[in-house]
Amino acid sequence: MSQRTLSLAALTVLELSPPEMVEVAARAGYSHVGLRLEPATPEEHHFPLVRDAALRQQTAARLRDTGIKVLDIEILRLKPDTCVADFDPLLSVGAEFGATELLVAGNDPDPARMTANFAALCDLAARYGIHPHLEFMPWTDAKNLTQALEIVTAANRDNGCVLVDAFHFDRSASRLDDLRQVPASRLRYLQLCDVAGPRPHDMAEILRQARNERRFPGDGDCDLHGLLSAVPADIPLSLEIPTRQLLEQGVPALQRAQWALEKTRDVLSHL
User: pTM for the whole thing?
Assistant: First the structure.
């Protein structure tokens, strides 16, 4: 097994401040982290890196001291009222941290408008050397791999990509045969976790599981070997594994981050 970029995603240790997250990633053995510059929900506890210069300085210092790099920044949403120019401050901060990938959600029922906004975002991000990735999620307006790829392809920007998350791939019933057809240039990183049990019929339950109840790689029912075999070899992996039950049981962030890394390496060793 060759050396692969393994990044600690913010959602795995969301209770930590960015400097604490960098420290945990370094101690656990990761090479990279993902920084959440914009909260996913209004209720989510958030550390405002974009607005807090002191917090940015502390985070940058921890990155320098530990040698940890930033893989991706998140999460921008394309909505009906989105003004892409408003995203410039977030992209600037991402570039300041050296991020090369950006996670984007599609929350616009008009595919033509979402495509136009994604193309405009790609143009804006290109100035910073950043690649926007449209992440398909079954409760959004880019529900599966096919829909996300259609939008990215229609936007027709060299830096436009699709983000595959193992959870959403499973819960959206996306197909490995379709994933194998995606051009390698459209796949620059992948979010890894595992998923337990059959696909719920209730979308609210799928959403709850996505944000609170994922499994470490190898501990669920996903065909992770099939998934990883269908994407470019050595694609960077962002380990996004929220486990609310372990958090409530008092399992420290460092332990959860270590388990995620150990389980991922075990899965990779059997590819």
Answer: 0.97
Which domain CATH number covers 133?
3.20.20.150
* Residue type for position 159: N
Q: Looking at the domain assignment, is residue 1 inside a domain?
A: no
Distance CA 6, CA 8 (A): 7
Type of residue found at 221: D
Cβ proximity of 15 and 45 under 8 Å: yes
Task: Determine the Cα–Cα distance for residues 103 and 163; give it in Å rounded to an integer.
Answer: 7
In order of 158, 216, 259, the CA distances from 94 in angstroms are: 19, 28, 28
- E-strand stretches of 82-146: 101-106, 131-135
DSSP letters spanning 148-165 = HHHHHHHHT-TT-EEEEE
Alpha helix ranges (H) inside 101-212: 111-126, 145-155, 166-171, 176-180, 203-212
Overall domain count for the chain: 1
Provide the terminal-to-terminal Cα distance of the chain, rounded to the nearest Å: 8
Q: Tell me the pLDDT tens digit for each residue of 183-210.
A: 999 999 999 999 999 999 999 999 999 9
DSSP 183: -
Helix-helix angle 145-155:111-126, to 10 degrees: 60
Q: Give the residue from 216, 221, 252, 196 showing the smallest Cα distance to 20.
A: 252
Structure tokens at 82: 């989105």
What's at 238, amino acid-wise? Answer: S
Enclosing domain of residue 79: 6-269
For residue 113, count other CB atoms closer than 10 A to its CB: 14
pLDDT, one tens digit per residue, over 40-94 is 888 888 999 999 999 999 999 999 999 999 999 999 999 999 999 999 999 999 9
What is the C-alpha separation between 84 and 193, in angstroms, rounded?
30
